[in-house]
Design brief:
Chain F: One of its GO terms (cellular component) is nucleolus. The complex is a heterohexamer. Chain B is of the alpha+beta class. Chain B is built from five helices and 14 strands. In chain B, strands 1, 2, 3, 4, 5 and 6 form a six-stranded mixed β-sheet that branches. Chain B has a four-stranded antiparallel β-sheet with strand order 12-11-13-14, sandwiched between helices. Chain B has a two-stranded antiparallel ribbon with strand order 7-10. In chain B, a hairpin with a 3-residue loop joins strand 5 and strand 6. By secondary structure, chain D is an alpha+beta fold. Chain D has a single domain (2-221), classed as Ribosomal Protein S5, domain 2. Helix content of chain D is 29%, strand content 33%. Residues 1-10 of chain D have low confidence and may be disordered. Chain F is built from five helices and eleven strands. Chain F has helices at 21-24, 115-128, 155-169, 196-199, 235-270, and strands spanning 31-32, 35-36, 49-53, 61-67, 70-81, 93-100, 140-150, 179-186, 189-192, 210-218, 223-233. Chain F is globular and about 55 Å long. The mean pLDDT of chain F is 85. The chains are: A mainly beta, B alpha+beta, C alpha+beta, D alpha+beta, E alpha+beta, F alpha+beta. At the A-D interface, strand 8 of A face loops of D. Strand 14 of chain B pairs antiparallel with strand 11 of chain F, so a sheet runs across the interface.
């Protein structure tokens, strides 16, 4: 395709009919599809032949934690009933200003929900991967780590070294060999090389 | 404005009513609600007025003070507006809640009275650069029943009409000491000529039509409003579009025509009632807040 | 070694020549001492104390309590939030006290605790990352003296050193006051002491005696108690 | 509540006096006088911290400087920042995360060297409160007059030669390195080096004074 | 992946770079960021409504300084001295950490720092600002507004202020004694003479031993201390090290040397852009 | 109450312009020998517009607008959390703040936000709100901060155009760009994009004092998002002026779009 055409908000892209549907970064008004972002136009032809037009911006993603999105967050404070955290990235996109999130005790793990000790799962300063459960209340988003792939990814031990996961619920400090309890995320293979720096 | 939460069904009911020019309280799109006005009911002000437009209640007091004019406009007096949304009008006005609405109202009043031909402020100046009259206009919002801007502007105009400024003679001795002599005779006063003063007319766009004097419910289902300050002679001294929605250009010109027409009518009716109330003189008893 | 002991140290002083115990070649460092690249520094001002075989610590004069696991403290209930009470124990955070951690309390029969009550309890969870948690039952579920203090008496705040001094077995304060007149006392490691004498006058006298004993040696304490007993008897 | 006097054996360092622990409500307090400059310092901590100022892995150090008369202005804010950054690096802040150590300094009289006196008063108050610190810090102010000779402020006999520059330098006790500097007026690099060495020697007296006051206070309660 | 590490563990990310003595934006430890200065076209300053103005872009940090002159009575105890009132405004435009409203603590500290530099360096003789002793003197309001906060705003402010003062010209004001009437004449303009040009150089201390000159915002956040040295070429006007990790004496000497080097660099920058005919304000604001 | 958070000078100071005779007597006529005071020929001539997007590294989106001597900088932050907000709403929020630099006008302005700046902030919010898709960032807020570096007339319209460019540069979803234009009605002539001296023309005695209208326009949707006017004129002159503003907005729209396209392309090939 020629150099991707750059569109700006308000520019008309195409006439809306059954074959062409508006994708992300566009909106539809009285019969026409208009661009709502400044970026390049992308046309994907989906299976049933209909073309989906969307405008993608290269770097300036406006992203807000949406339901079911995977987020990386840092645990800020731990109480017996919930842990407060600040969401640093949504999916792959780092946020310029963190959002406040909360993981309730019953959303920490899927098994034996009521016997969860939040101190044995998270410590302030841990970096966790979690999924957005709901938009929560006006104060914070509601997150959950009740899946094997979710939980603590990076944690620093008392001695200051970064902990190495040894089981789903324990991590070990390479320097003092002390073990600490954490709800560990089962990280897929390709990520492992980076976590054990 | 203080919006009352309406369900979608109520909103569509109101919109359809307006489409066939017959609103829920029986008025047509360009009709005002019952309004009663009273002036001169507060003794410690130079002029005052109370206006009740259906259940919107506004009290305006004007105090005339002798002060130094502003350095960049030395030979002109001036008007200072201040709007206060008291908490008994609506719970969210408590503390700083009402400040945003108050600043909006103040800005509109400053805009409306900014032109020099609206109110002859040069006559308010006694000694250029040294001494002039400053009229402090305080608007107090006592109850919100929708259409606050119109009610406020009408009450301000009535209060200015009712303002009595004691006449002051300035004697300039050889030494630069200026001698001020304020007459205490209650009848030796000067009145302001408010014939060219504007009143604000709010046109709320609901669906494809626009209505005048929207009640609180109608305001809740309107996305954009056009506020125009119109004088008795039909000239426009300020217009502001307010609200989250946008308007298309031709409907703006249409709304301006309607605004001018209705605005002139409101002004004439207001001047009539003010003059009529003036004739009654002291015999009329002031109803005040008893009703 | 003796010159080493009971010497006053300030933060930043290096503590050399530590005596390791013969058996385990390790030195136990108590509060106030810190290791940095394998030499030991003091980080609190106070008196360096040593206990056989290899325990060193610094006894600091401090008013502000830092929660330590297992210590008995006297707390004041400030708030009732859901199924936990907020208890002020004089530290930087308010401790949480679950309604289940009272003797004989179950989901249905909840303990009668109101805001403002004084609670004698033990610290279950206390470290710098976590919110402190206190309980009023010991490991067997019995209160063993802990719980809400209901019967009057007088609560006052002192420095942490005085409390440690009173709990020290060699201190004669408790014994000498004890054989003068009967009283009840509860000592919280967070610097709060609760005393109750037979009459209010005795309770006040007790409180003053405890506060005065802070900077006294044992003989002075005995003399003070005699004077106190005569003064009380004389007034009767 | 004893008063500590020290002899003025150092070349021209004015008399230092200090009363420890005379504020009953504060966790630690010190009313410190150096020559005619006197500051009352009180410390609270580690205590509750406001959500907005909370740091999740260390304690927040807050400093409030109250001038003798009038409202605190930019100069007081500037002093507050100097003292806060100094004690943020001195106090072992990661022992009490998510809490705050609060230092309040009330200026009682200023005859030159107010910042140095405030720092010394704050350090004494922290010692009185028993807050854990890496090392002690002491500050001295040096005055450089026109023809380049340097004397320490506040001197006992205030010389009438008008000073062209002044330097307040803070040293730590462990390795007597420069912890903080603030200056006013112009001076050359050579004058700076001389003032550093002079101040370094003077701070030894201040550290000795710290030791004496603490010994005085602790000796009673053994 | 680099982004994730940079946001999650910034310190380790930096330590890896500093081990090789280079910084993520590949500058050496002692190298300043590219600096662009606009003192405006020859006749007027870049802000025509101000008596003197300058805009500086230090890497990504942008500071604009405008100087406005007003008239007032002098203090009774110094009848022949005018006023020089600097103020730094860290507005909400420059960074998400500043909210609109009264100046933040950092803005007050910067304002006091700039005021100290002006007082210590005496670069403007307050006596030059006198119109009629005892009756009327000039008040020079120097307002510095930070438009982009990417670290080291102190150096940017001092350089912007010095550049703006170097091209400030005040109209001639005459007060005739008898009538006491004052009259300003805008055709004749009188430039202010600067006795010296104070220039500042700030270094950040990283992990107690590495000194990074002209730190960016992230380097400032990760640093454990800051040292700011202001010189006027010969002497040191101000030496500020507000707490933070201790500094060995020869490290301090290194900072002072760097300040003197920076002074010569900055002076030619000012003389170069003095006569520049950059018509619009755009170029420094624009070329990234 | 003395402002203790800033370095303060003497209490009351006068501007040197107060003592300069020729500035006090503002002239009345708009046209001198066929040209407008700053050399523009026709009434409908707009000053050369220079726009630049993405110049502030810290901001999510930013823009700089220069109308000959009027210079405006805008920064957009967010969408981020709303600090204290009780009501939970699926709609995002915008908050705007316009600030004049103290050195931006001939007479020095105060640091504290005065009535005029509050008025401009509300008008900027009115202009932007209809154009932004508020449902694309539920429960959060976008902040738009505008600083006027130099004010040589029609500061509000420069602020609105610059702010909408900054919002687009920030990647915030918008229905359309907002372009604004100001017109000064002086007697019978309508001066588009008036300069500072044209804004304060003295009224010719006897004539109507004219007025000033600012129009915020969304050209591709042909919708008016903001309209504010003050003065004293008849209705038909006012609607003529509004129409003149609308035509200028269409011309300006092209310039804004090209700037945005250029900045997106530049960012694409160097990232």
């Amino acid at each position: 395709m020629a150099a991707p055409m750059v569109k700006v908000p308000g520019q008309r892209l195409a006439r809306k009919d059954e074959t062409t549907k508006p994708g992300t970064g566009t909106y539809e008004q009285n019969g026409f599809i208009y661009s709502s972002l400044a970026g390049c136009v992308q046309k994907e032809t989906s299976s049933d032949g209909s073309v989906q037009i969307s405008v993608i911006t290269d770097v300036q993603q406006t992203v807000v934690p949406s339901v079911e999105a995977i987020v990386t967050a840092r645990i800020t404070n731990v109480t017996p009933r919930f842990c407060k955290c600040s969401i640093l990235t949504v999916g792959k996109i780092p946020l310029k200003e963190p959002f406040r999130g909360m993981i309730r005790k019953e959303d920490v793990r899927a098994t034996e929900k009521d016997k969860v000790e939040t101190y044995k799962c998270f410590r302030p300063g841990d970096i966790v991967v979690a999924r957005v459960l709901s938009l929560g209340d006006s104060q914070s988003y509601l997150l959950t780590t009740a899946e094997n792939e979710l939980g603590v990814v990076i944690a620093t031990s008392e001695a200051g070294a970064s902990l190495v996961p040894i089981s789903w619920c324990k991590m070990q400090c390479p320097r003092t060999l002390a073990e600490e309890f954490r709800k560990v995320a089962r990280v897929q293979q390709e990520f492992l090389q980076y976590t054990d720096t | 404005m203080v919006d009352v939460n309406l369900s979608e069904a109520e909103k569509t009911f109101i919109v359809h009513g307006i489409q066939d020019n017959f609103r829920e309280d029986g008025r047509s799109n360009e009709e005002y609600r019952q309004m009663d006005l009273e002036t001169g009911l507060m003794s410690n002000t130079s002029g005052s007025a109370r206006l009740r437009l259906a259940n919107t209640e506004i009290l305006v007091g004007v105090k005339a003070e002798l002060e130094e004019p502003k350095p960049e406009k030395p030979d002109v007096g001036r008007l200072e507006f201040f709007v206060d949304c008291s908490a008994n009008a609506a719970p969210e006005f408590e503390g700083r809640g009402g400040e945003e609405l108050a600043t909006e109202m103040m800005n509109l009043l400053y805009r409306a009275y900014s032109a020099s031909t609206v109110l002859d402020v040069s006559s308010l100046c006694l000694q250029s650069g040294k001494l002039c009259w400053v009229l402090y206009v305080d608007v107090l919002l006592l109850e919100c029943g929708g259409n606050l801007f119109d009610a406020a502007s009408i009450a301000v105009k009535a209060a200015l009409f009712n303002t009595k400024i004691p006449s002051v003679k300035v004697r300039q001795e050889e030494g630069e000491e200026t001698e001020l002599e304020v007459s205490d005779d209650p009848y030796d006063v000067r009145r302001l000529d408010v014939s060219a003063a504007p009143t604000v007319l709010t046109l709320s766009k609901i669906g494809h039509n626009h209505i005048v004097d929207a009640s609180q419910k109608e305001e809740a289902c309107c996305l954009a409003r056009l506020m125009m300050a119109v004088t008795a002679s039909g000239s426009v001294t300020a217009t502001v579009k307010e609200g989250r929605g946008s308007l298309d250009p031709d409907s703006i010109t249409e709304m301006m025509q309607v605004g001018k027409r209705v605005g002139k009518a409101v002004n004439e009716k207001l001047l009539e009632t003010l003059k009529e109330e003036e004739q009654k003189g002291l015999k009329r008893k002031t109803v005040g807040f008893l009703r | 070694m003796a010159a080493h002991m009971d010497r006053i140290v300030l933060p930043g002083d290096k503590i050399s020549d530590l005596k390791e115990s013969e058996t385990s070649k390790k030195v136990v460092l108590g509060p106030g001492l810190r290791t940095e690249t394998e030499d030991v520094y003091a980080c609190k001002p106070g008196v360096l104390k040593f206990k056989e075989p290899n325990v060193y610590w610094i006894d600091t004069h401090q008013k502000r309590y830092v929660p330590v696991k297992g210590e008995h403290v006297i707390g004041i209930v400030t708030q009732k939030a859901g199924d936990i009470f907020r208890v002020d124990i004089g530290g930087s955070d308010q401790a949480s006290l679950s309604y289940l951690s009272f003797e004989g309390s179950t989901k249905r029969n909840r303990p009668d605790v109101k805001v403002g009550d004084i609670v004698y309890s033990r610290l279950l969870v206390a470290n710098k990352d976590m919110e402190p948690e206190v309980v009023c039952i010991d490991s067997h579920g019995r209160s063993s003296g802990m719980g809400v203090i209901r019967s009057g008496g007088f609560l006052f705040k002192t420095s942490l050193n005085l409390v440690r001094k009173m709990c020290n077995p060699q201190c004669v304060l408790m014994k000498s006051l004890g054989n003068k007149f009967p009283f009840e006392v509860m000592v919280g490691m967070n610097g709060r002491i609760w005393v109750k004498g037979r009459t209010n006058k005795e309770t006040v006298a007790l409180a003053n005696a405890v506060c005065a004993a802070e900077h006294m040696t044992n003989p002075q304490i005995k003399a003070m108690c005699h004077r106190l007993a005569d003064a009380l008897a004389g007034f009767e | 509540m004893e008063v500590m006097e020290t002899s003025t054996n150092s070349p021209c360092l004015a008399a230092l006096t200090c009363v420890l622990g005379d504020l009953s409500q504060a966790d630690g307090s010190a009313s410190f006088t150096h020559g005619n400059t006197s500051v009352l310092a009180a410390t609270y901590g580690p205590c509750e911290v406001r959500m907005s100022k909370e740091i999740l892995d260390q304690a927040t150090v807050e400093v409030v400087c109250k001038p003798r008369v009038g409202l605190p202005n930019c100069a007081d804010k500037y002093r507050e920042r100097h003292i806060r950054d100094l004690f943020q690096a001195t106090i072992l802040v990661n022992l009490h995360p998510r809490s705050s150590v609060m230092i309040v300094l009330q200026e009682r009289q200023d005859d030159g060297g107010l910042l140095a006196t405030s720092i010394n008063a704050a350090c004494l108050a922290l010692l009185d409160a028993g807050v854990s610190m890496k090392f002690l810090v002491a500050a001295v102010t040096a005055l450089i007059d026109k023809d380049g000779n340097i004397n320490l402020v506040p001197e006992e006999k205030p010389s009438d030669v008008e000073a062209s520059a002044s330097l307040t330098i803070v040293f730590n006790e462990k390795d007597l390195q420069v912890m903080g500097v603030t200056s006013s007026g112009k001076f050359s690099q050579e004058q700076y080096d001389r003032s550093v060495s002079l101040c370094r020697k003077a701070t030894e007296h201040v550290f000795k004074f710290y030791r004496e006051s603490m010994e005085r206070k602790l000796s009673k309660s053994v | 992946m680099a982004d994730e590490v940079r946001t999650a563990q910034p310190k380790e990310f930096y330590r890896k770079y500093l081990e090789q003595g280079v910084r993520p934006d590949n500058r050496e430890l002692g190298e300043f960021r590219p600096t662009v200065l606009d003192i405006g076209s020859k006749n007027g300053s870049c802000i025509s409504t101000a008596e003197g103005s300058a805009l500086i872009r230090l890497g990504n940090t942008i500071v604009i300084c405008g100087i406005k002159g007003e008239l007032a009575e002098p203090k009774t105890e110094t009848p022949t001295e005018g006023y020089l009132v600097p103020n730094v405004e860290l507005s909400a435009v420059c960074s998400p950490q500043f909210r609109p409203g009264p100046p933040s603590e950092q803005a007050q500290v910067l304002s006091q720092f700039v005021a100290n530099v002006l007082k210590n360096s005496q670069c403007v003789e307050l006596e030059d600002l006198c119109i009629a002793p005892g009756k009327m003197v000039w008040v020079l309001y120097a307002d510095l507004i930070c438009l982009d906060y990417d670290g080291n705003v102190a150096d940017a402010c001092v350089l912007a202020l010095t550049a703006a003062l170097s091209n400030t010209s005040l109209p001639v004001v005459r007060v005739d004694e008898e009538t006491g009437k004052t009259e300003t004449d805008f055709k004749e303009e009188k430039k202010i003479q600067l006795t010296c040009t104070p220039i500042s150089a700030t270094s950040a201390i990283f992990e107690d031993n590495v000194l990074l000159v002209d730190p960016t915002r992230q380097e400032e956040e990760l640093s454990t201390g800051l040292v700011t040295v202001v010189t006027d070429g010969k002497n040191i006007c101000s030496l500020e090290k507000p707490g933070g990790s201790p500094l060995k004496d020869q490290q301090m000497r290194l900072c002072i040397e760097r300040a003197f080097q920076r002074h010569t660099e900055a002076c030619n920058l000012i003389t170069q852009s003095q006569g520049s005919t950059l018509s619009t304000l755009t170029s420094p604001l624009v070329d990234r | 109450m003395p402002d203790t958070r800033r370095i303060t000078g003497p209490e009351e100071t006068q501007s040197p312009f107060a003592f300069c005779p020729q500035f006090l007597a503002q002239s009345a006529e708009a046209f001198s020998d066929g040209k407008r005071r700053d050399g523009r020929k026709a009434e409908a001539d707009h000053r050369p517009v220079f726009l630049k997007a993405g110049l502030i590294s810290q901001a999510k989106g930013s823009a700089f607008a220069e109308l000959d001597k009027t210079k405006v900088v805008c920064a957009v932050y967010g969408p981020h959390e709303v600090a204290r907000r009780e009501d939970f709403s699926m709609q995002g929020q915008i908050s705007c703040e316009v600030k004049f630099a103290p050195f931006s006008c001939r007479v020095r302005r105060q640091h504290v936000q005065d009535g005029r700046e509050k008025d401009l902030s509300t008008q900027l919010l009115e202009a932007l709100e209809p154009a932004v898709r508020l449902d694309s960032f539920p429960k959060s807020q976008v902040d738009v901060f505008v600083t006027v570096l130099e004010n040589d007339g029609s500061a509000l319209s420069a602020a609105i155009t610059c702010a909408s460019l900054a919002l687009a540069d920030a990647g915030i979803e918008m229905y359309d760009l907002v372009v604004a234009c100001t017109a000064r009605i002086h007697g019978t002539s309508i001066l588009v994009d008036p300069s500072f001296s044209e804004e304060n023309l003295k009224t010719v005695s006897g004539e109507k004092p004219g007025g000033q209208v600012t129009l915020g326009f969304m050209p591709s949707l042909r919708q008016v998002s903001a309209l504010c006017y003050h003065g004293d004129t008849d209705l038909d002159v006012l609607s003529q002026a509004t129409q003149r503003c609308q035509d200028t907005c269409h011309k300006l729209y092209q310039v804004v779009q090209d700037t945005l396209v250029k900045s997106v392309e530049q960012r694409m090939n160097n990232s």
